[in-house]
Amino acid sequence: MKTKTILFSTLLILSATCHAQNQSSIHATITQPVLNFGGGQISDFLYSAALPSDEFGYAGTGLGLGYNFTHSLNEQGLFLTTGVDFYWNPIKSKVKDRFETEADGTHEYTFPNYFNIPLNIGLGFRKPINDKLVLGGSITPLINFLKVSKSYHIHYFTGSQGDFSSVESTYSLGRSIGIKFEGSATFNDQWIVSLGYSLNGKHNFQTFRYALSTNQLPDEEVYDRTKSVSLTTIKLGFILSNK
């Protein structure tokens, strides 16, 4: 995995040193989880004690920021593209609402968030339609880094003298290889609107679970987890330079 990361980083640096027909841009993104990453029954999440299951992510609509660089390879419109993105996706609102409804004041929850950082490099093609519009598309293999934020679950027992149980979960970093498909429209050599479908791969990581209860010794457990990440994206970009 280190070798692949170094390879991608090297390609990003090499492409950025090219001087002919280069374009750099930044963009804001709306991300919509699909397939298992955005799926799952609320009841299954409830039984998992605020710890997402292996199969489903229960992820909701999120936001992102990113940078992209392209280098023209010929006059027919073929180009090399590289970029990096940062995506944030929370747990779905309806899952959180269900927890609050059933908590009845005796439970407190801090839900995990998903953070994805894909590094991509690939090829694309663009074609001018007129002086103000350019259409394009790209296919880019990627390396994705997935981080799940810390989560808590505290249960206060009714009718007791301050008795409680708590579970704190932390997660290691997951890495995987994937691919992204994207179509774009550039307006007035300044603004870029793009639609994408990103299969960020299956990530293996570990969950470290620390449980504490009144009058009981702390209990620590480690679980092996697997999470597949798939997203559709809508991006609005601004061209920083076009030489």
Short descriptors:
mainly beta; Porin; 4 helices; 11 strands
Polypeptide structure, described:
With 243 residues, the protein is mainly β. The protein has one domain (2-242): Porin, CATH 2.40.160.20. The protein contains four helices and eleven strands, in the order H-E-H-H-E-E-H-E-E-E-E-E-E-E-E. The chain has helices at residues 2-16, 35-38, 42-47, 93-103, and strands at residues 22-33, 62-72, 78-90, 107-110, 113-128, 133-148, 151-156, 164-171, 174-187, 191-213, 219-242. Strands 1-2-3-5-6-9-10-11 form an eight-stranded antiparallel beta barrel. Residues 14-19 have low confidence and may be disordered.
The radius of gyration computed from the alpha-carbon positions, rounded to a whole number of angstroms, is: 22 Å
Helix-strand category? mainly beta
* Ends distance: 34 Å
Provide the number of structural domains: 1
Based on the coordinates given, report the CATH architecture. Beta Barrel
Low-pLDDT segments: 14-19
Largest sheet: 8 strands, antiparallel, barrel
Q: Which strand-content bin applies to the residues?
A: over 45%
Instruction: Name the strands of the widest sheet in spatial order.
Output: 1-2-3-5-6-9-10-11
Question: Can I get a quick summary?
Answer:
The chain is mostly beta strands and 243 residues long. Helices cover 15% and strands 60% of the residues.
Strand and helix layout:
Layout: H1 2-16, E1 22-33, H2 35-38, H3 42-47, E2 62-72, E3 78-90, H4 93-103, E4 107-110, E5 113-128, E6 133-148, E7 151-156, E8 164-171, E9 174-187, E10 191-213, E11 219-242
Antiparallel strand pairs: 1-2, 1-11, 2-3, 3-5, 4-7, 5-6, 6-9, 7-8, 8-10, 9-10, 10-11
